[in-house]
Amino acid sequence: MYRNYIYILFVALLLCRCSGKPADKEEPPVDLPQIIAAGEITVVTLYSSTSYFEYRMQPMGYEYDLVKNFADAHQLKLHVKVAENVTRLVEMLQAGEADVVAYPIPVNNALKQEAIYCGREILSCQVLVQPVKPGEKRLTNVAELIGKDVYVKANTFYHDRLENLNRELGGGMHIHDIEKDTVTVEDLIEMVSRGDIPYTVSDDHIAKLNKTYFWNIDVDLKISFQQRSMWVVRKSCPLLAEAINAWSSDNVTEHTHKAAVKRYFELSKKMLELSMPAIKDGHISPYDSLFKKYAKSLGWDWELLASVAYQESHFSNTEISWAGAQGLMGIMPATSRTLGVALGDLTDPEISIRTGVEVMRRFRQGFVDITDPAEEIKFTLASYNAGIGHIYDAQRLAEKYGKNPHVWDDNVAEYLLLKNDPDYYNDPLCKYGYLRGKETYNYVREVLGRYDYYKQKLSSI
User: Residue 153's closest CA among 203, 188, 126?
Assistant: First the structure.
């Protein structure tokens, strides 16, 4: 279907060139035919938990998954650029640095004069994030916010909306501004989940994604009108806009869209908690002999390797995470391909353990400057969870701010936690952008905590 569509566009363009005035000597504008001829499409987007990020050395994100599907459908190589903010997205597009803004840009008449909106229309709004507690009634009407304490970042659209809503309600809402620069919207959502604050406000797509991490929050109460947003191309790219519109309305694309929605906004991403499974008859798992066999190549205690496997899969060799990590050791598809291991083979416990150990061995080689074996283990575990690029970013940030780049706790770990803050992940030192660093921070802590538990229990048998 897509090839036929492109062919028709080519024919139409050729007919236009063959009739009318001779072509000017100036270079023609870059539209779909030129993109097809070059074999590559360049998109610009933002780093965020919903649009684009790298996790376990694999690019991901709702917008990324969709634009990658568009590129694949047209047999184009995808080149992704990242802007610092929404304003820069449009500036880079108009400067010819990208062909498409693959990020939801609010629809407004001013931009319509300069660009073409295209693709799937997104309707978004701001919502109240509130806790879900047994026996307690949730707020279902904005009027119920009178007398309530709501916490938001200072100088944001969220603050402005609450101020307007408070005036509409006649006052009485208690709005608390968070001035600390390193606190993000997602941090505030987690604070609601923990019970540190009663309420906050977020864009609905961010709130929905965070609900997949925190089951005890409610994000259903809308506090603003819906805003229409779409992707954008230059005014000189009508054929590209038509192709994106045709692709976005296709039935096959609808399946892709539903899969992306499920992956990022519905599937649980809650990490396996620091549970301490029972040790029966001196056995941690059915795979103890394999852990003992392959831990030797790392020079690790086999109980540590077992703790990694439990964290990844609860010892299930058929586990598949929301990100696509598979098998006992949570191996990503791209990693599997790089190591020449067929995805279907990862259900074999020995192949999964052997592959996981090889991944960790390679990551460990990236930290030759770390001489303390205990620190080396922490950096290797962090890389296994997030991807080594993010750990390098955190090391560079730690060094910039006077911390030790070779020490995990209270040093590199602190700056990994800040990689969800645009002030840090947009730093030129950061090469790998946004990361939900809290997940990796907890991963290292929990794997090592369970390892200590295993050692203590087995030593007493």
Answer: 188
First to last CA, the chain: 66
| Cα 70 from chain centroid (whole Å) | 19
**Cβ atoms 418, 429 nearer than 8 A:** no
152: tokens are 């938001």
pLDDT at residue number 14: 38
For 387-406, the pLDDT digits (tens) are 999 999 999 999 999 999 99
Q: How far is CA 165 from CA 23, 149, 157, 204, 220, in A?
A: 57, 14, 12, 17, 17
Residues with pLDDT less than 50, the chain: 1-25
pTM score of the predicted model:
0.88
Give φ, ψ of 266 to 5 degrees: -130, -45
Transcribe 400-440 into DSSP letters.
Answer: HTT--TT-IIIIIHHHHHGGGSHHHHTSTT-SS----HHHH
Contacts of 52 (CB under 8 A, 6+ apart): 45, 46, 59, 60, 61, 63, 64, 80, 82, 102, 433, 434
Structure tokens at 42: 């360049």
Please report the beta strands in 135-236, taking only residues with DSSP state E, as ranges in sequence order: 149-153, 174-178, 200-203, 217-222, 227-234
Residues linked to residue 101 through DSSP beta bridges, in sequence order: 44, 232
Cβ neighbours of 422 (radius 10 Å): 16
Count CB neighbours of 128 within 10 A: 25
Nearest of 99, 106, 94 to residue 80 by alpha carbon: 99
Given this model, what pLDDT does residue 12 score?
Answer: 41
Pairing of strands 126-131, 217-222: antiparallel
Rounded to the nearest 10 degrees, the angle between the axes of helix 302-313 and helix 288-295 is 120
Q: Please check whether residue 30 is in contact with residue 54, taking contact to mean a CB–CB distance below 8 angstroms.
A: no
Answer whether 104's CB lies under 8 Å from 231's CB: yes
- Pick left, alpha or beta for residue 39 (phi over 0 → left; psi -120 to 50 → alpha; otherwise beta): left
